[in-house]
Write a structure and sequence with these properties.
Layout: E1 5-11, E2 17-23, H1 34-47, E3 53-60, E4 65-67, H2 72-84, H3 89-108, E5 114-118, E6 121-123, H4 125-132, E7 135-138, E8 143-145, H5 159-162, H6 170-177, H7 183-188, E9 194-195, H8 201-210, H9 216-226, H10 239-242, H11 244-251, H12 256-265, H13 271-281, H14 285-299, H15 304-320, H16 323-333, H17 351-355
Parallel strand pairs: 2-3, 3-5, 4-6, 5-7, 6-8, 7-9
Antiparallel strand pairs: 1-2
């Protein structure tokens, strides 16, 4: 077993099992590489039919991050090599994306409770794990975001589903602006009802280890009785709630160009608004257009598996285009922070080109096998 994923079983007094899964890649903020994803996929598939499994506890090594996302530097290397060899870049990244999406989908359909401790940075692939778990926990240190448009990608790992579920279309705003937000804002956005202080991690683990649960329904009852809302929820700010009027005004625009015009011209004396506005304006125009189309389609699709398959197609198409590797190069490899997007402005986007991101090539296997 890899040192990147630590697994431990605890047999309880009723002979059922508590499975502990620990992400262990702290030097990279527990970012998911292909090896980690393959192990998680294998273990989740193995355990989903175990009758003696009681509950799963997922957490990570260190206090800085639960998971900062996927290891996109690894993907950049694969794309670069495949292009140099004249191969289809989509096929070089398929295993990473497809295995990750199958893993997240299996988590979302898992028959037993999954309690996830989401302290510190929870972004990208970390959000996929968080939002696919039945009982995701946020703490006072949690920092959430779906920042993919900043690197020429799109919000994946099930974001088509969970962002489209956020009230008032605020998920679209999160996706377009790579907005960072805390636990109190996650509560306002109805992303999770579970919040604990950082120091309560061992207390939660001991509850899972020492309590006996007849079934998932009994677990829900006991967990609700065990839960006590922490004090920090009343002290953290909720910027999106405070700025909801301005955000909803921006979201009234039904196309990217109008949204862009409004956002580029609306300067407010608000640090968070300005940070989000700048994130949006310097992001990949193609990624922004894909996000608009992605979440529009997601509103019409309630089948979670079909949405993961749609994301698989988009991810492979983005592997073939220039913006994704260029964004990773500029922000994470060379760190020039000055990516050359193609096209370089939303006014230069052809709608027919954006639709192609949602069309698979015949050689691509994008169906989830789970």
């Amino acid at each position: 077993m890899s040192d990147f994923i630590l697994l431990k079983e605890y047999q309880k007094t009723d002979s059922t099992i508590l499975l502990e899964i620990q992400l262990n890649n702290p030097s990279k903020l527990n970012a998911l590489n292909l090896e980690m994803i393959q192990i998680l996929h294998k273990e989740i598939k193995k355990w989903k039919d175990r009758k003696d499994l009681s509950v799963v506890f997922i957490h990570a090594t260190g206090e800085r991050a639960f998971c900062a996302g996927g290891d996109v530097a690894q993907l950049y290397s694969k794309i670069k090599t495949s292009k140099e060899q004249g191969l289809d870049p989509a096929l070089s990244t398929r295993d990473f994306f497809h295995t990750e999406y199958e893993m997240d989908y299996m988590l979302s359909q898992f028959p037993k409770p999954i309690v996830l401790w989401g302290n510190g940075i929870v972004m990208g692939g970390g959000m996929g794990l968080f939002m696919s778990s039945s009982h995701p926990i946020a703490t006072e240190s949690s920092l959430f975001a779906m920042p993919e448009v900043s690197i020429g990608f799109f919000p994946d790992v099930g974001a088509s589903y969970f962002l489209s579920q956020i009230p008032n279309n605020l998920g679209l705003y999160l996706a377009l602006t790579a907005c960072r937000f805390n636990a109190r804002t996650a509560q306002f956005l109805e992303m999770t009802p579970w919040f604990f202080e950082n120091e309560s991690k061992q207390k939660v683990f001991d509850f899972l280890k020492n309590s006996m649960f007849k079934d998932s329904r009994d677990f829900d009852i006991q967990f609700k009785n065990f839960y006590k809302p922490p004090n920090f929820l009343s002290t953290q700010d909720c910027w999106i709630k405070e700025s909801e009027k301005e955000i909803l005004k921006a979201l009234e625009f039904k196309n990217l160009n109008s949204f862009y015009d409004y956002f580029s011209q609306t300067v407010l004396e608000d640090k968070q608004w300005e940070r989000n506005r700048k994130n949006f304006l310097k992001s990949s125009p193609s990624s922004l257009a894909v996000v608009f189309e992605q979440l529009k389609r997601s509103k019409r699709q309630t089948n979670r598996k079909a949405l993961f398959e749609m994301e698989s197609v988009i991810a492979m198409n983005m592997s073939c285009r220039s913006d994704f590797p260029e964004g990773v190069r500029a922000l994470l490899i060379d760190k020039t922070k000055n990516p050359k997007w193609n096209p370089n402005h939303v006014d230069n986007i052809e709608p027919e080109e954006i639709k192609k991101y949602f069309i698979p090539k015949s050689a691509w296997d994008y169906k989830l096998n789970c």
